[in-house]
Amino acid sequence: RIEIFGEAKAFMRLTLDEALADDSVALSLGYLRPTDQSDSTGRAILFMDFSQEGKADYTSFSLIRTVWYAIHVALEDENAQKEGIVIIVKSSDSLRQCSIKTRKELARNMQGALPFRLGCFQICHPPSFVNIILKIMRLLLPKKLRSRIRQHTGTHEEVIDLLAIYGIPKSAVPDIWGGDLNLEGHSEWLEARRSIENGRY
User: Fold this and answer.
1) Which of 9, 130, 190, 201 is the most exposed place for a label (fewest CB within 10 A)?
2) Per-position DSSP letters for the chain, written without gaps between them
3) Bridging pattern class, strands 118-124 and 32-38
4) What is the pLDDT of residues 116-154, one digit of tens each?
5) How large is the greatest C-alpha to C-alpha distance in the chain, in angstroms?
6) How confident is residue 37, by pLDDT bands cut at 50, 70 and 90?
7) Dihedral pair phi/psi, residue 146, rounded to 5°
């Protein structure tokens, strides 16, 4: 935690105005965000958007801090604390966009720095080059996590049906894929979180 947040902020509250006070640019991307939905086993569902990499001026550590924050928020739910989380993944738009440095740091944090149980990565509508990235990621991830990566291709309806097999409802699937999760409301979600953290709700 000290490495990711620095000595000055490592033991501050994990809130937008304290430990993440300098991460507004990375936070605005919605790189990883809770959906406020759960799967059929009670695991919190989050959405990760790798296509946001490189779209703003931020450091890798700043982006990783936003990952810490999103998981921290998801784990406010008691069922998620017990059952863990699942992550629906949107891939990068191009191979050039992928940041190996960020992926390596993310994988390292997934291996134990972050206190949570990961159920699965559900990668939806991956472009063909994703297999190249997955080969690299599988080298970085521990064996336990390598087996928890799923890819889903097909029409929007077919992918929604495939996700349903894993207990993921349509309400947690982003609207870009025919689901009901509105991705346009991220800035409003951040403001709502700020109000909660500052005791205005």
Assistant:
1) 201
2) -HHHH-TTTTTS-SSTTTTTTT-HHHHHTTSEEEEEEE-TTS-EEEEEEGGGTTSSS--HHHHHHHHHHHHHHHTTSHHHHHH-EEEEEEPPSSGGG--HHHHHHHHHIIIIIS---EEEEEEES--TTHHHHHHHHHHHS-HHHHTTEEEE-S-HHHHHHHHHHTT--GGGSBGGGTSSB-GGGHHHHHHHHHHHHTT--
3) unpaired
4) 888 999 999 999 888 777 777 777 666 777 778 899 999
5) 48
6) very high
7) -60, -35
